[in-house]
Amino acid sequence: MTSIDALMRSVPVIPVLVIDDVAQARPIAEALVKGGLTALEVTLRTPAALDVIREMTRVEGAVVGAGTVLNPRDLDSALAAGAEFIVSPGLTEPLTDAAKANRVPYLPGVATAADIMRGLDHGLDRFKFFPAEAAGGIKALRAHAAVFGQVRFCPTGGITELSAPDWLGIPSVLCVGGSWVVKPGTPDPATIEQAARAAAGLRKAAQG
Ligand code: 3PG
User: Fold this and answer.
1) Superfamily (CATH H level) for 4-108+161-198
2) pLDDT reported for residue 203
């Protein structure tokens, strides 16, 4: 199992996936991996999500995680389905304790200095900055980064193909998350692969 830091450095973009139909799981994962995006966040927002995780873990080269993990019960279900990392929109004590107890790579969401400080108290220094655009955008993240020099971020929420390069230009940003790579509806694998290839080609300025 890889660390959350290594996972964040493995790709510039983590696609955030909301998938209703388990039949779409494999073609979507295969297209993303073929395009160069190997870390896949399957959000637990649809009844099919756990089955989607199970299917996607069978795709060679895919590192499949669960997103929208809200509590220890979600975390247990996601791990049972084969999730290799856990993403949450926020940072709570019960979820953080459960993630630590399971030693699973864990990316909790933070939006404020107090959130980051609670994470640091738990020994964490890798966070999802969420909701990135609504919580103040690049200006807010730069302000947090100036205060918390050791912290690295994966901004997510409102980021687009067009704005992603600006976010990735911030040294404390290791990757970004976004749903733009796989648009809702009936996805065409060739379109997904093309979007993944463009996203995988984005350059990172992150250091340290
Ligand atoms: C998430 O779950 O991280 C966000 O819903 C993704 O945000 P986006 O849809 O604006 O990319």
Assistant:
1) Aldolase class I (3.20.20.70)
2) 78
CA 167 to ligand 1 centroid distance, Å:
15
CB atoms within 10 A of CB 133: 18
What are the tens digits of pLDDT across the range 135-165?
999 999 999 999 999 999 999 999 999 999 9
The verdict on whether 183 is a catalytic residue reads: no
Sign of CA dihedral 48, 53, 55, 56: positive
Task: Give the separation between CA 43 and CA 52, rounded to whole angstroms.
Answer: 10
Q: How far apart are CA 11 and CA 45, in angstroms?
A: 23
**pLDDT for the residue numbered 207:** 52
- Cα 208 to Cα 206: distance, rounded to the nearest angstrom: 7
For CA atoms 24, 28, 29, 30, the dihedral sign is: positive
Ligand 1 pocket mutation, candidates 156, 163, 167, criterion most atoms within 8 A of CB:
156
Minimal-distance CA residue to ligand 1 atom 1: 157
Q: In the sheet that 126-129 helps form, which strands lie side by side, from edge to edge?
A: 109-110, 126-129, 152-155
What tens digit of pLDDT does each residue of 188-200 get?
999 999 999 999 9
pLDDT in tens, 68-88: 999 999 999 999 999 999 999
